[in-house]
Amino acid sequence: MEQRMELLPGVWLCGVETRQFKGACLSFSLLRPLRQQEASKNALLANVLMQGCETYPDMQSISLALDQLYGAGMGPLVRKNGEIQTCGFYLSFLEERFAMEGDRILEPMLELLGEILLKPCVQHGAFRSDIVELEKENLISIIASSINDKRSYASKQMLKAMCKDDGFGISRLGEIEDVKAITPETLYAHYKKVLETSPIELFYAGSTPLEQVGACLRKVLRDLPRGTLEPLPFCAMPRRQQVQYLEETMDLTQGKLSMGFTTGVTTKDPLFVPMMVFNALFGGDMTSKLFLNVREKLSLCYYASSGMYGAKGIITVSCGIETANYEKAKQEILSQLEACQRGEISGHELEAAKEAMRSSLVAIPDSTGRMEDYHMFCLLSGFSLDPGQYLQAVQQVTIQDVVTAAKQVSLDTIFFLKGAAQ
Question: DSSP label at 422?
Fold first, then answer.
């Protein structure tokens, strides 16, 4: 069972005390409203901080320090959930009860986190220019390479168009032109503002009592500046009056169709769990209507799946098709949605959707990483059920509940990425 405590103003520690694993984990996340002008800075910040601090001035010395802590790991972590972006670190390390007698691991790991966060390498009142330029090149390369994954690119472009007036349309890593504009001075100024104004969430999973972890973190973070905290946005995506149709041409052999739907149902809505069951039944699994009908039965696409963004109440559908099948595939996807809205759902389909969700939920307690990821999902999206409660709620969903949820789903945006020669 999770425990939660406030360490400093706006700095919260949540944890699960467990002796199930040989390793423990701790994440540190600065929470920011997604804004175009700072998304790339947030994505870059943790990577720059990981390049060195006063005690460990380069990656080699940091790696050596981690090796001496029984091969512990620490890396940057950038996430996006709804209109919130997080930047920070994920730490994984051996439980002290499995170390040599007298060896300490937890406290040195937290001290290393504090050093990297609060005592970075600074030169002339800014981050070191060589570090910033290197990490800018790396981030630009990652953003540019994402275009090579055409399925992901099509989904990203669809959401960007669908949410052009909303923070959710902003990329988790920002845009290349924004990265290029960052200087060591502007990034350092942003770093100081972020430390002072960001709500901060830490999550720990391991066998050490949370009070002991919290006491150590208070000591490590005692010099963390705190000021007026930025409010974090949360709202469902509003419905559009008319459907948007967008198209882009690239040199590719397989077209990518991406469709966005609004539901008005977020994680805070009583209809959220039925909506998740609907998503699983509609396109969330290999037993879904989209997979079995659009792909298997009619052979209209190479793949077809749906996903739910609970913080925004958005469902997306992604499929790979021949350009000639665009209209047929689009109509069949909408036909499967209409079938759900009419109640054309069998008991077998409902149970298969529930089983797909059950398999995912029961695996959460089997990994500290999955626990941390689920905790942050709940925190950032306002979802209040633990995995066990969530599973119970899923089992209680009826066909009529799914029909009620399906009737909330409305087409908003269609984006089609087609080949130049097609």
Answer: -
* 216 secondary structure, DSSP code: H
How far is residue 276 CA from its own chain's centroid?
17
Q: Assess contact for 28 and 117: CB atoms under 8 A.
A: yes
Judged on CB neighbours under 10 Å (0-12, 13-18, 19+), 144 is exposed
Helical residues (DSSP H) of 119-209, grouped into ranges: 129-145, 150-162, 176-180, 184-197
* CA Rg value for the chain: 23
pLDDT tens-digit series, residues 293-347 = 888 887 777 888 999 999 999 999 999 988 888 999 999 999 999 999 999 999 9
Q: How far apart are the C-alpha atoms of 149 and 129, rounded to whole Å? A: 31
Nearest Cα to 207, choosing from 115, 105, 113?
105
> Do the Cβ atoms of 10 and 29 come closer than 8 Å?
no
Q: Which residues contact 96 (CB under 8 A, 6 or more apart)?
A: 103, 104, 105, 106, 208
- On whether the CB atoms of residues 369 and 93 are closer than 8 A, the answer is no
Measured in whole angstroms, the distance separating CA 413 from the mean position of its chain's CA atoms is 22
Q: Say which residues have a Cβ less than 8 Å from residue 112's Cβ, sequence separation at least 6.
A: 56, 62, 65, 66, 74
How far does CA 160 lie from the centroid of its chain?
16
Looking at residue 366, the DSSP 8-state letter turns out to be G
Burial of 272-299, coded b for 16+ CB within 10 Å and e otherwise, reads: bbbbbbbbbbbbbbebbbbbbbbbeeee
Integer Cα distance of 136 and 41 in angstroms: 10
Q: Is 119 helix (H, G, I), strand (E, B) or coil?
A: coil
Q: What is the pLDDT of residues 86-116, one digit of tens each?
A: 999 999 999 999 999 999 999 999 999 999 9
Cα separation, 191 vs 92, in Å, equals 24
**What is d(CA 280, CA 314) in angstroms, rounded to the nearest whole number?**
14
Strand 200-206 to strand 23-33: parallel, antiparallel, or no bridges (unpaired)? antiparallel
